[in-house]
TrEMBL record:
It is found in: Membrane. Keywords: Membrane, Transmembrane, Transmembrane helix. One of its GO terms (cellular component) is membrane. This is DoxX-like family protein. It comes from Psychroflexus aurantiacus.
Length: 119
């Protein structure tokens, strides 16, 4: 259970601040241009990252189903991010974080099912 708590805290903080960066960071503006994505796609990505971060935390403390859905949503978001990295031919070092976070969120989703006896 402590591992799940640590992972949720780590993921939530990471996605919360990365999501905010999508709105305010000039570096993020440039990255999304490099990805070939529009400003609205950058803003939607940031919105869903912040929402996912809050959903994970809320799901752990209040409603496990919300946490599960947030983890699945972040898994899909990072899976798409990994696909973008592959499409633009980023190297392994550049692509790995998106794959890592996708798999981490998938693991957390399964742990929500197991720990909170969902479904």
């Amino acid at each position: 259970m402590i591992v799940l708590q640590i992972l949720i805290l780590f993921i939530s903080i990471s996605f919360f601040f990365y999501g905010l960066g999508c709105f305010y960071s000039p570096k993020m503006y440039e990255e999304f241009k490099r990805f070939g994505l529009s400003p609205i796609q950058r803003q939607l990505t940031g919105f869903f990252q912040v929402l996912g971060a809050l959903g994970l935390a809320a799901g752990y403390f209040f409603m496990p189903l919300i946490g599960f859905l947030a983890a699945i949503g972040l898994f899909l978001l990072m899976g798409l991010g990994f696909g973008v990295r592959i499409k633009i031919k980023d190297n392994f070092t550049q692509s790995f974080p998106s794959l890592f976070f996708a798999l981490l969120n998938l693991y957390v989703a399964f742990r929500f099912i197991e720990v909170f006896d969902l479904f």
